[in-house]
Amino acid sequence: MMLEQKATDFLNVLSSKEPTPGGGGASAAVGAFAAALGMMVTNLTVGKKKYADVEEEIIGIRSQLEELKERLIFLTDKDAEAFEPLAKAYSMPKGTPEEIERKEEVMESALYEASMVPLEIVRTVFEVFGLLKVLEKKGSRLAVSDVGVAVLFARAALEGASLNIYINTKLMKNRERAEKLNRESDDLIAQGRKLQEEIYAGVLDKIR
């Protein structure tokens, strides 16, 4: 898995001319960092007498964030895998009407699959927002700034992954299916932005 490499190795590949990992994989990785920062806050909260009354809830959040982090690590690789069929489809011959028709069919399928992985990244990162909102309210005050960093990462991951949806749906012939994907992404982004602003404002209120 790409995130099992040294961070410097991952960044070196990301900065190279290789097509993957690209923006989608990087967004998933940033989302995993957001979840990991949230986990750090839970670990700095659990076991403290001051937060004993919310400890059980915080432990549950830690478990959920762990699952989301692992899913995003998986999606970092999955995004690269989804790009391969699309890259092959672009290079298919189109010298005859039959070849053109076949290429269009393969392209449509590949574009859809290449859209679904970043949509899954968007869906997964969106779940992180709700957990960070609880941590901003109930987590350790000493680590609340890390909640702020996490939610900024989460927003970057959410909106970054969405760009990989839109660039693919724009080329899809099935406009009904394309617009359905766009609408779901648009809705999650709108909700995510609202949550990010609320959480970040709460963090600033506590530290300034």
Brief sketch in words of this structure:
The protein is an all-alpha fold and 208 residues long. The chain has one domain (20-207): Formiminotetrahydrofolate cyclodeaminase monomer, up-and-down helical bundle (Four Helix Bundle (Hemerythrin (Met), subunit A)), CATH 1.20.120. It is built from 6 helices and no strands.
What would your notes on this structure say?
This protein is mainly α. It has a single domain, classed as Up-down Bundle (Four Helix Bundle (Hemerythrin (Met), subunit A)), CATH 1.20.120.680. Helices cover 81% and strands 0% of the residues.
Q: How is this fold's topology laid out?
A:
Layout: H1 7-14, H2 23-45, H3 55-90, H4 97-138, H5 144-169, H6 175-207
Query: Low-confidence parts, pLDDT < 50 over ≥5 residues?
Result: none
Give the number of domains: 1
Query: Any idea what the radius of gyration is?
Result: 20 Å
Q: Approximately how much helix is present in the residues? A: over 70%
> Could you state the CATH homologous superfamily?
Formiminotetrahydrofolate cyclodeaminase monomer, up-and-down helical bundle
End-to-end separation in angstroms reads 40 Å
SSE series: HHHHHH
In the CATH hierarchy, the architecture is: Up-down Bundle
Number of strands: 0
Please work out how many helical segments DSSP would assign. Answer: 6
Averaged pLDDT? 92
Q: What amount of the residues lies in strands? A: under 5%
Quickly name the level 1 CATH class: Mainly Alpha
* Strand-pairing-aware structural class: mainly alpha
CATH topology: Four Helix Bundle (Hemerythrin (Met), subunit A)
Largest sheet: none
| Form type | elongated
